[in-house]
Amino acid sequence: MKTEPSSHELETPESEATRLGDSFSWQSILFVALSVCGLLAGLTYIFGFTWNGQRLLEGEYYWAFIGFFAAAAFIALPGRVGQTSVPFYDVIAAVAVLGVSFYFAANAWDMVQAGWSNLYMGIVVWLLMMELSRRSGGTPFLLVVVLIGLYPLVADYFPGLLMGIPYQFEHMIEAHVFRAEGMMGITTKIVAEIILGFLVFAGMLLATGAGTFFIDLANASFGRYRGGPAKVAVVASAFMGSLSGSIFSNIAGTGSITIPTMKKVGYPAHYAGAIEACASTGGVVMPPVMGAIAFVMAITIGVDYVTVMIAAIVPSLLFYFGLILQVDAYAARTGMKGMPRDQLPSTRKVLLRGWPFLFVMVFLIWGLLYMRWEYYTPWYASLLMIGLSFLRKETRLTPRRLYEAIRQIGVLITQTAAIILPIAFVVSALTITGVTGALTSGLVALGGGNIFLIICFGVMACFIMGMAGLAIVAYIFLAVTLAPAMVEVGGLNTIAVHFFIVYYAMLSAITPPVGAAAFLAATIAGAKPMKTSFTAMRLGVVIYFVPLFFLFQPALVLQGDLTPLIYVLPSIIMGIMLISGGLEGYLLGVGLVQRWQRLPLVAAGFAFSFPGLLTTMLGGLVSAALVALIWRQNRTLRAVQV
């Protein structure tokens, strides 16, 4: 008899695995101590507190942050799969990165004023960051960081578009490690300032029981409907993915509960895994928190985070709408029922128990949208959550629970820092060589000035770079090369273009041959990975075509004139219903769809949903004819059965 794998048996990506062991093992205590020091440094700098009568300089804080959390990463992140102990050389690496970082922090003023640098220590930092990139993203990530990071050494040897300004090794290290183009620039700012508060907030929510609350709330709301556990998985994973910003921790946490429940009510193992993979992937672009990539986008475009958050609302809701429709259609076609009421929690009791979590979420949104506190907001929300936790014994932050909360927060920050900090070398290499401008103009020339060809090149580039599972790296590279070309030639909306890149870059999480999210969900479900990944592609179909829609109709990302939403949004919603019905063989409100009708229904739904007058009208006419035919067939079938 097959048993469900335990959480420690899951093939979690390296960036999501830790070797901290028990709460009070020596490595956990050391990890928490480093995390506390890093958080105190962050609070001191972000809120402008003084240290010995002076405020921390930007460089001083950045190096302190790098020192504490890079050292924590060498303690927490295993050097190889299955490693549970911390070898002596990782302790040496932690001490080295901490010592070098604090030496640089002590010389931060000279770095700014006199361009101070230290080649040999810079090489040490560079090598240690390379190792962190391997541990956080695996060998593919390491290769990307190394190859693009070393590009300045040979930039003048490349032909055509790839030719750039060459740099000697010592000057390259100086740019990578000490200058604003590298580690003292955008990447460290993102993780040490912009994201930090949101990671603290997510960790505080998880530590006080928000995960259980959202699963119970989803069960109480949707569990009684047909295919209820699948709908619970979609809703709960949307909430948790938005808070954690991590696809894989969401699957490992939420999926370990929802996948077995889905299987119990009749969903095949591969289908249950695919549902969880899609739901967790969509959480990364689900407001209000979203994943790290949203903050990278805000900095890259030069807008505040609120603008990005608002722009993400409609596409993410459309994605989850399509996913819910498909799991409902499967349940209807196979005759599934909901869970018995006596097995479901009471909505009233769940809300009475968990209202503080909803209140804090509302406070976060109010602070972001109305008060415009930006990255101060999650700090205030975390403080409010701490206060509200004392209202109930089960959530009260006792010293032990506070310790566990800090450990959870430290894990989130460490994993994020380990994946983002090495990207500084990619950004630096692309910037100092000047190759980004050449690539932009080259893409325009290659596409012959045709925006549709450039979009095709963009889709291929996003997918190829995303195949390594490096959505952030793919986004940063394409944001400075592809995005300007699309804006220049097509006159497209800047935010729409950047969201287009984000969506297609993250497709790799569920798309074969990589499909890391689908593979992890398949491990939990006990299903075949490739079958799960292909099923996830079908379930997540909305994410494959909606980015094309908001490219040509920026109202879908709430940009510009919103009047087109009056007629575009209803057609897209109807189109998604038709596509979901065609893919799953059941059309909501109409009935079963015959096998030969599925592909035409999908094609007609796509045409109907495309934001163009001619395609919408043509798709609408064909869709109406198909729906009428399907309805008539089902009516005849019901009459015969009676």
Detailed description of the structure:
The protein has 642 residues and is an all-alpha fold. It contains 29 helices and four strands. The chain has helices spanning 26-46, 58-76, 88-106, 108-114, 119-149, 169-178, 186-194, 196-207, 210-222, 228-244, 247-264, 269-282, 292-301, 305-311, 313-334, 347-369, 377-389, 399-420, 423-432, 435-446, 451-466, 471-490, 494-506, 516-525, 529-539, 542-552, 565-584, 595-609, 613-641; strands spanning 50-51, 54-55, 586-587, 591-592. Among the domains are: 10-179, no CATH class; 194-397, no CATH class; 569-642. It starts with 25 loop residues before the first helix and ends with a helix. Residues 1-12 have low confidence and may be disordered. The strands form two sheets. Strands 1-2 form a two-stranded antiparallel ribbon. Helix 2 (58-76) runs antiparallel to helix 3 (88-106) and helix 21 runs antiparallel to helix 22.
Mean pLDDT: 86
> How many β-strands, per DSSP?
4
What is the distance, rounded to the nearest whole angstrom, between the alpha carbons of the first and last residues?
42 Å
Low-confidence stretches: 1-12
User: Given the structure, what is the number of helices?
Assistant: 29
Biggest sheet details: 2 strands, antiparallel
C-alpha Rg (nearest Å): 25 Å
In the sheet with the most strands, the strands line up as 1-2
Roughly what percent helix? over 70%
- The gross shape turns out to be globular
Structural class from helices and strands? mainly alpha
Assess the beta-strand content as a share of residues.
under 5%
